Automatic annotation (TrEMBL), chains A, B:
PANTHER family membership: HTH-TYPE TRANSCRIPTIONAL REGULATOR GALS, LACI-RELATED TRANSCRIPTIONAL REPRESSOR
Source organism of the structure: Actinoplanes octamycinicus
Full protein name: DNA-binding LacI/PurR family transcriptional regulator
Domain of life: Bacteria
GO MF annotations in UniProt: DNA-binding transcription factor activity; transcription cis-regulatory region binding
Domain HTH lacI-type: 3-57
Family annotation (Gene3D superfamilies): 3.40.50.2300, lambda repressor-like DNA-binding domains
Alphabetical keyword list: DNA-binding, Transcription, Transcription regulation
Keyword ATP-binding belongs to the record: no
Length: 345, 345
């Protein structure tokens, strides 16, 4: 018979509870006690019995977080916030990068099922609602982002369209006349881009104007290089814009770089506003005006919703999927207000 | 008896191999076939048999990556590179953020053991060599970064001290006289900071100078805000530096922001060089001179070393731990050369 907790406890001269604390990675075990237990574990070749644990239906204390890409600062910062919120519940978070591909997202759910995760926080890009419903059947899940509304699981997001309209309205209020957008995408799964474009157009319509199709720049991805290239195309097209709403901060930072390289003043010649409020935009030159979603609140809400489902007494019906909208605000900085005005805000 | 692969295959009208491909999340299954299999899985309530898989000693196709923090762009970009390199081997990467705390790092190894991971790529900050040795006994592991040399496992890193000396030498060659450093740390575990400071001092000594202790700024963490605050202290101290070597790019970006806010020209008054070559520094204004480790090479090497251990035929002795040094180079941009000169590089 393979060695059990009891054997390790005897060998180390500690209680079974202490061995269990070490095995579970709890933080309050004294270093020398921990060392003694680890030595006994190694000597006896003890391995925690995963299968038994699973059969008992116990918790693993581990949740998974599936995100499109960590290279994108917004998702990296969101991941950091979720890890922090989960830590308060003594949960470990394992992160899976899906690249936003529907194929990888599909594989994800079945891959994760083979692991002892208690639940999943998932920011899907490629998969659609009905498909998620089929997969969500038995792993408690919280969805993040604008991809799925009224889907099969709890869902946390900001109002993208309203936020995009507010950003555009800010540019109108500065008296700008030729307002461009960078970040349009045509793919049917490009929900973020579509919602932000809708908000942009709505704000212009409200101001009695129509979006000039020549001022709407498409991008492949939401990275700095895409923003830089899109801005170059807008400038090359003849009649340059005097303001740009970029659908995320990375696009805006790329666009600003192109403007400065070409000798345009920001915001003197062209005002630029982004979306996400990543830390980079608080230190860039000029600092970046942007839409700031309350990321810590998004993270905490997702963790709380998941915890509620996990704490559900056995036999009690799970609540219907909940939709939670998180606050956002427009933060104005140097890239639209200029240096001196931004300091007075 | 619970339903097996065979039952799912019969119900879906496909081969067992196809069901296995769907369950394992492989990418080459046709969408309608996948849908049929998923439907059968849902109808029959099939669950892959984790315990059986483990007893067979099979592979899970999942590796873990443990990093100090995703909020730090270098680690986020490194994670992206590792996921990409692992994808070519059809591995899934689960990422765990340790916050660099020794306690969390200790918990990590035992937490991960309970999961079906084939191996671990680990960038430790808090744990020391001997302790890692005790934990590394049976999970194949590759260590990243400068924390542990000649440790218990394969190790991939650049030569930090040499790289820091090269960055400092670049500032000397520009004719700068009062060269400061931002990023010193006193904690016994702060190996990165210590190595980069040693390289800084070595390059100054080589140029016949001594590091002025008043020009070595300490930081709590390697974030933008720490760099901004450290630069402010250097400027307030009376005799400001004319060049600064920052121990990472985030510190450099914070330092530049403070310099510009106070009306100093970069590099006119103060030249600034960082370390890491994160994408942000290629788009910032000014663009950032830096030490560029070959991150893709680090990622690929770590994955290759892990694969070699995993592919080891049963019964064959594992090779002794290997030390692999990865190339780096100094990339000079506007923050040390100025705009026009940087364009000619």
């Amino acid at each position: 018979m393979p060695p059990g907790l009891k054997d390790v406890a005897r060998q180390a001269g500690v209680s079974i509870k202490t061995v269990s604390n070490v095995v579970n990675g709890y933080l309050h075990v004294a270093p020398d006690t921990r060392a003694r237990v680890q030595k006994a574990i190694a000597e006896l070749g003890y391995r925690p019995n995963v299968a038994a644990r699973q059969l008992r239906g116990g918790r693993s204390g581990v949740i998974a977080l599936a995100l499109p890409e960590l290279r994108s600062a917004y998702f990296a910062e969101l991941a950091g916030s979720i890890v922090k919120a989960a830590e308060e519940r003594h949960w470990t978070v394992l992160i899976d990068q899906t690249d936003g591909s529907a194929e990888r997202e599909r594989g994800l759910v079945s891959r994760l099922r083979r692991h002892l995760i208690d639940g999943l926080i998932f920011s899907p890009l490629g998969m659609a609602g009905p498909e998620l419903a089929a997969d969500a059947s038995d792993t408690p899940m919280v969805l993040l982002g604008e991809r799925v509304w009224h889907g099969p699981a709890d869902h946390v997001a900001i109002d993208n369209t309203a936020a995009a309209a507010e950003a555009t309205r800010h540019l109108c209020e500065l008296g700008r006349r030729r307002i461009a957008a960078i970040g349009a995408q045509d793919a049917p799964t490009a929900v973020t881009a579509r919602q932000r474009l809708a908000g942009f157009e709505a704000a212009l319509a409200e101001a009695g104007r129509r979006a000039d199709p020549g001022l709407v720049a498409h991008v492949e991805e939401f990275h700095r290089a895409d923003g830089a290239a899109a801005m170059a195309r807008l400038l090359d097209s003849g009649d340059p814009p005097d303001a740009v709403f970029c659908f995320n901060d990375l696009l805006a930072i790329g666009a600003i770089r192109t403007l400065l390289d070409r000798g345009y003043a920001v915001p003197g010649d062209v005002a630029v506003i982004g979306f996400d409020d990543i830390e980079e935009g608080r230190f860039s030159s000029p600092t970046l005006s942007t839409v700031s979603p309350d990321v810590d609140r998004i993270a905490r809400t997702a963790v709380d919703l998941l915890a509620e489902r996990l704490d559900l007494p056995r036999g009690e019906d799970a609540p219907a999927p909940r939709e939670v909208r998180i606050e956002h605000r427009v933060v104005v900085r140097e890239s639209t207000l200029g240096r001196l005005a931004a300091r007075r805000v």
